[in-house]
Each structure stands twice: as structure tokens, then as C-alpha cells.
């Protein structure tokens, strides 16, 4: 049983983040908050009724490579058809190119529901978003007209082809080659690995976006070009025609997300089309990167919530022994330690959900004429933070969910183990946590000498003042702890900035610094949610929000101080 | 490739813990430290050469229930035969009953090697230890003479039968019944679940120790009796004879330890024999409990070390991109964050290994006439701490090992994923972490009003003074941090003791308090290991020990302070 947290998004968009203002700016008042409530209500129902029941059987059966390609588990093709026909593959794609036209704050919420319901399934439409964005932004007109509409409608799906055996984190080592053909097309040859949904039977065509090198291209990252390589070459009417020379060699046997086929793809003189300029492939690919990284954070939130919901339901039913200070027959959910664990989980989930919505709001604002100067900088700064923080937290929360089940958690049929297995990929793909930390330090913090960090700290300090002014002891306690955490992070920021001359010391503290920011931003969101809950008379969930704010500060925010020691220490010689 | 850390145990027993004194007291000088070096060298070789290669295939094939019982994966029966013939099943069993006669400090070390090499396999001889101990301590002579020798020689193996579907943590809910028969034996009927190695083909007989209720027994824990129920009833010559009425109904489909069969056992008028007094079953079972719980901690250390060794080897080989401040071609082990992760892992493993050896030493001393007054109390106090701390840390370390592998970590063939899956049972079986914390608070801390806690803090303070006197900056830094951690734990202790009237507040902080103690004791062991390493001219590993001491204090010991907030907060209303 999965229940989508649509009402939490309602709360965030109505009382915490200026949802109405963003809808006005992004849709010109054509979409109202009531419309969003309606859309998310439908999305939640679809996630719960259509996708969630396929999650456990999808794990058991897995996707399989057979003679004519990859076969997905029973029910997946039908579910994808319903999903695409409902327009859900392109909820956040601009209406001007046939999408649902919803801003990121809405698509982000729906994305959480899909991931929670069925992480493996959700990756497929998720990757199409990236392909649409890259084609729309960089492909020449003719390509765009052929490829974007079927990707938007979901009739075709997209993939990202970066990794090769020798080129994972280090894309400079990519060897796949592209030779120009007479007709303006290119011949692509090479092997790509870890290609998620690289082949399947859900859609009539698959559009691979492939990083490769043209002859005489410079070595390194500046010699990569982006190519579009369809599984079937479109005929003159744009329908899938001749089979292209890309083959699925094998599927990986993975720890989790078994229903999502992870392919080794062989390109042997496959026909491809250049997207964007030659040697500018990385820039075109990076159009997808922020979106994809925030997407992983949202997967983490969804999967964590799914695991939490199951643990909570189990604990509320299971009776085992006498619970301290409670009558006989009280379920284990009332044991002090089970209660602590459940609160640790739910308070982290609410914090991450708040932050992902805030980052989405900055993205939406940055894309309009109403942006404040720092919106885009805050997006760049917080995307690696939320990707790293939420993906690592998801691993912990799914582990906690196993623990709440006791011995039953270790039995596969219970389902908790699947979430734990599925979660483990999140801190790895789209850049490991260390890569996110390198991005945060190297490309964000050091580049503007801490200016964006200080902007964010000032925003948080404003919320400290608001929380302090609220009439509630939890708000006051949270304000004090948040103020202390701001100082700890400010100190870390200065420490790292002062290490321009000893980069190994700076980077040794990178992941701890990223974690500090995640926790601090989570505390910030709780402060804002708490103040909103205390002010919103009709918020029936306010007792929960007060508990979560207090629980988050106690169990999570307090960690910023011990993390500070790793940052101060630098590299241990 | 697994390499047993025999030299680390050599170091601990020669320079940190008074191994020579314990050998003198427990074996009357018959075993020397050189003998121990020899034994552990052989154990390490056997673990690496015989058991480790069966670990991955054991996971893939798993144990299977077939018509005539459980079949173990290829190679397991032959390996068990070699293992038993070498006397390794009873290394720590008293020589007076045919065992190897080694004290716990030695058996503990070998136990780590077996667990690291093949966790699933190691559970089988591990359970026999418990059966030997219970029979030896409580069974009447005739039973003892029949059952103990084949258990000691490893021809037969033992199991523990506690759990039923409605009776997991709460053993008071056990329903399995025992009816007296005319000949002094009993007829046992009921269903037991989660029975590790409950059936298999490694040995010629299996001896189940079963908790059940006699007619008119009191309800609750005081109405449980312990019965010995063999799979095959011994014939007059003591050889396995008639098949007893105990059947394996099914095996659990688990997240990990696939080679270890987890059985549902049906007893239907099976013949059993009372062990100890009627209604005293729990006391007899608890003979095994401390030993079993320390055993789980040791499993955690072994499995963590196996995962660490693999991650370290991978990182030392894998070249990927340019490493900050290092020449091209430097492997990822030199990336600041990979180095941080590896140090976090190895420093925790060394700390846990030190503490498990210290606890073993207290056990050994408590069993001799040379015990100090507090040895037995310290055992009781630290067993739940190390079980909870090391099992949770093992989950984190095996997760870190996946992370070091990047995308390859998520692929099952790599092996890192197996350790991550296997590890997840450790914080659950033999009592979840919350149960360990309840034990620490309810049966240890509150019962002696903090006396043993204060004894332990005083021991640690003595090591603070020694570290401060050493001439090394890392020792001074560690001494300062350890002193601060002692104060934090002392504060927590007082907070919990002051809550006799609000037990829910006390128990809400239980797991955090247990974790504080684990971290503090780990820091204590590092201080002692560091001082020993600085003083032992011939310790070639001393640079590593210095780094680990510094790394543990930075990354782990610092967490005692944030954990303190959860203890102070009590239950969040």
C-alpha cells in the first residue's frame, strides 16, 4: 500500500513556497493552485493504483535480454501505455512543444510519486525528459521536428550514453568514435555501459544521446560531441523504419532496480546525428545534468517515503511484548526506539521534500523574467547538495525501514529489502556523492569565493528570526539550533575558502561540507514549515509538523557540529 | 582475495591487552603467545584458502530445500569436513571435554577470520558452540555424554530454536508444547521459525535446543523449559538412529547469507529431552546469549574487514581521471574523498577489533580465579554495546565499500553487494539494536545505578592520561577528544539515571547512548593501540595505527556530542 503525499505538496506550495507566484510567472495564470491540487491528486492515484502494484513483481522477475531484445516484467508495457496516454511522460515539458506545461514545482512532486511507486519504472520516462531537453535546446530544426514530438508523447523514449568501461567519472577518457558520412549523418562506433533503459519493449523507438569523438577532435573533455542515435531510423513519415546498428550485448545483474534494464550497448557503424556543435557535446549533455541530479534526489525522497510508509504500517499493526508505559496489546510503533526511528525517517523525508520543492521553485523562477539575481546561482549551489544528501539519506532510511521490521525485514517477500537494495544506486549514479562534493566546492563555492553560500546563509538567518518570533517552544528551540548550525557552516565555508593553496585538504572535507549543507537546509525548511503550520489554522497535519521539526533538529541538525571536525581536520596525513 | 589480519591480533595480544597473562591464567602456561601466533596463522590461511573462495558461489547458489532435506552449495560439505577434522569447530571449547582449549581472546580472533571469509558458513559451527555450552552447563550426565562429544568433534551441529511467528523479541509468547512421556523423555509439538542452519547436509546429525512449555507451566518467561531435540535419535552406541519427528517445512528467501539455510521447523510429537530444570529454560538459553551476541559483533568486524579489503584493493588498482595534487595515472585510492572513506572504514574496524578483544579478555579473566571484581560486570555492560555498535557499523562499512566501487559496486558479480546484503541481518538477529540498548539500560545501567559505567569511564580516563604523556601530536589530540567524549558520556549517564521516573524518556535515548559508548570505547582502544604502537619499535604497522587513531577521532568519536542531543531530548512528544 502506497499513499502519495499530495497533501504535503499542497501545504508546501500554498504556505511555505510561493506556489501561486510561480504559477503566475511560469504559466501566465493559466494554471491555478487548485489545478495543481487536482493534477497531483490524479498523479498520486495513478502512482498508487497503477505503478505501485508492479514494483515487487518487477523486482522478482526483472527485465530480461532475449533474442529480439529486452523484455520487461509482466504489466510494464500496459502500465507505460496508460502512463503515456495520460500525458504523464511530459508533465513538465513546455506546452509549446506539446507537454503538460507544468512548472518544475509540480513535475517534481509527481516525480516523487512515480519513484516511490516504482523506482525502476520511473527511470524510463525520467530519462526521456533529458533527451527532450537536450534535443529541444541543441538539435537543429529538422531533427527536433522528427524526434521531439514522439518523445514528448511518450511513443519513443530517451537514454543518456556517457559511460564506457574506462570512462566512468572521467568522461575525458571516452573513446567511442564518430565518422562523418556523405549525407551529413555520422557513423558511430564504440561500446557504452551502464545504459539505463537502453533497450526495452515499452515504446516503439528509443533515442540514444551518445557522447563520442570526431576524427582529429582535441583530447579530453573539449573533444566530445553529442550524437542522437535512434534504435530504428525514422522513415520519411517519421515512423520507426530500418533497424540501426546498435545492439544490446548484455544486461547487468544488479543489486536492485531489477526491472530497469541496465544495458551494455554496442555501436558498430550506427547512424547518428550531431546535436549542437562539434566538440561542444559536454555542454549539451550538461543541459540534462542538473535536471537529472535533482531527479535522483527526488527518487531518493520517494523511495525513502515508500519504505517509511511500509515500516510505519508494519509497526502500527505488529504487537510484540509489552511497550514501556503503554497498555498490553500496544503495537511496536509505540516503543520509544521504534518511535524515534520512525520520526528520524519521516522528519528527514519532510526536510528533503521541502528542499527539493524550494530548489524547483528557484529553477522555475530562474527560467522566467521574474528571477531574482541569485535564483540561478542557488540552483547551481543546491543541486549537488540535495543530490548527495538525499541519496545518502535514502540509503539510511531504507535501512531503518528494514530494522523496524525486525527479522521480517530480512525476508525478501516483505518488500522492505527491495527498497534497501534499490536505494543503493542513488549515491552512485549521475555522479557519486564525492563528485557532487567536488562540484559544490570546485565549481560553485571556490569559483564565486563563497558569495552564493553567504546568500543562502542570509536566507536561513531570516528564517531563524521568523522562527524566534513565533509563539511556540519548538520554534524557539529550532531557531537556536538553526542559528548555531548557520555559524558552524559559515565556519566550514571560511575554512575551505582559506585552503585555496592546499586543495587536498579542502576536498578531503567536501562530502562532510555537502552533508552539513543538506542538514542545515533541511533545518531551514523545517523552520519555515513549522512557522507556516503554526499560522495555518486549517492544517490538520500541524501536530506532525511540530514533532518532525523538533525531531529533525535533535537527530539530524545536531550532526553539523561533528561533521565540522572532519572539515577542520582536512586530509589526515 | 581475503587476507586474515592475524598480525593485528598479535599486536593486540602482545602490546595492548595482556595476552600472556590471560594465557597463563586460562591454560596454566600450556599455551604461549607464540603458540597463539601459530594457531592464528593457520586459521587465517584456512579462512583465506578454504572458506573465502566458497563465499560468492555460496551466495549465488544458496542452500536449497529438496525432498530429503536441505542441500548446501557446492563445496560446503567438503569444506566443513576439513574444518571439523582440523579441530576448528571447537577451538575455544575446554580441553577437558575434547576442545582446543583456547581462551576466548584466541577463539574470538579465529571467529573473525571465519566470518570474514564466509559469513554464511561460519554461522553453522558458531551455533554449535552455543549448543555445547548449554549442554555442558545444564544437561544431565547421560545426555551430556551422548551429545557433547559429537558436537565438539563437529560430527554433529547445533541450533537454537526460540522464535515463533508470534514470538520474536517477545519470548513470553512462545507456544510450542512439551508433554512428558513414560520414559522420561518429552513429546515436543509446535512450529519454530528463523532457525539458522536448522537443516543441512554438512554433518551426520543436528541437535536442536528448543524452548517450549510444559503442561500447567506458568505463563510468560517463567514457564519456558529447554529441550534437546536431535534430528536423528541416537542408537544405543550413540550413533544417529531413528529419524525424529522434526521436519523442515520451508526455507526463507532472504536478502543475504543465502548459503545459510534459515528454516521453518515443524515439531510434531518429536522426542525431546529436558535440559536443566523445568521452567528454567530461559536461564539455560541465556548461557549462550552473551557468547552469541559477542559472536555477532565479531561477524560484523569480519564482514566489514572483508568489504574493506576488497574496496581497498579495487581503489588501489582503478585509475580514473586526475587525482588532485598527484601525478597522472594515480589510482583512485589517492582521491581525498576515497582516502577519507577508506580511513573511516579501517579506523572503525580496528577500533571494534580492539574492543572485541578487550571484551574477550574480560570474559577469560572472569572465568578464572584471577578475575578482578569488575571483570564480569564489564562483560555484561559491554556485550550489548559491542553487538549493537559493531553490527550497525558493519552495515555502514559494507555500504561504504559499495560506494568506493562506484557503479561497479552495484553489479552483483563484483562481490561488494553481497557483503552489503549479508551485513543487514547483523543489527537484527540475536536481538535488534534497540533490544541491546534496552538490555544496556534496563538490566545493566539502571540496575547498578551507573557503577559499572563509572568503572569503565575511569579506565578510559587512565588511558587519556597515558596518551597525554606520550610524545606525539596525534596522541595529544586524541587525548583531548577522548577526555571530552568521556565527559559527554558521563553527562548522558547521569541524564538517564535521573529518569527513573520517566522510563520512556530514558529508553528513547537508549540506542544513542549505546552508540556513544561504542564510539567512546573505540576511541579508548585507539588511544591504547596508539601508545603501544609508539612504544613498540618493531611494529611495522605503526604509521597506519597513527593515521587510524587520528581518523577515528575525527570522523567517529566526534559523533558522541551530537548523539548526546538525542539523549538529553528524551522522547519527542
TrEMBL record, chains A, B:
Q: Which reaction equations make up its catalytic activity?
A: 3-(methylsulfanyl)propanoyl-CoA + oxidized [electron-transfer flavoprotein] + H(+) = 3-(methylsulfanyl)acryloyl-CoA + reduced [electron-transfer flavoprotein]
Q: Acyl-CoA dehydrogenase/oxidase C-terminal domain: from which residue to which, for each copy? A: 279-440
All copies of the Acetyl-CoA dehydrogenase-like C-terminal domain together span 460-571
Give the transmembrane ranges: none
The molecular function terms of the Gene Ontology recorded here are:
flavin adenine dinucleotide binding; oxidoreductase activity, acting on the CH-CH group of donors
Q: Does the keyword Flavoprotein apply?
A: yes
What's the domain of life for this entry? Bacteria
The family classification in the record reads: Belongs to the acyl-CoA dehydrogenase family.
How would you classify this enzyme at the top EC level? oxidoreductase
Spell out the Pfam families in the cross-references: Acyl-CoA_dh_1, Acyl-CoA_dh_C, Acyl-CoA_dh_M, Acyl-CoA_dh_N
Outline the extent of the Acyl-CoA oxidase/dehydrogenase middle domain.
Answer: 160-269
| InterPro entries assigned to the protein according to its UniProt record, in alphabetical order | Acyl-CoA_dh-like_C_dom, Acyl-CoA_Oxase/DH_mid-dom, Acyl-CoA_Oxase/DH_mid-dom_sf, AcylCo_DH-like_C, AcylCo_DH/oxidase_C, AcylCoA_DH/ox_N, AcylCoA_DH/ox_N_sf, AcylCoA_DH/oxidase_NM_dom_sf
- Name it: 3-methylmercaptopropionyl-CoA dehydrogenase
Report the EC code(s) recorded for this entry.
1.3.99.41
Species whose genome carries this gene: Saccharopolyspora montiporae
Question: Which residue numbers delimit the Acyl-CoA dehydrogenase/oxidase N-terminal domain?
Answer: 77-154
Q: Which UniProt keywords apply?
A: FAD, Flavoprotein, Oxidoreductase
Task: Show which residues constitute the signal peptide.
Answer: none
Q: Does the keyword Oxidoreductase apply?
A: yes
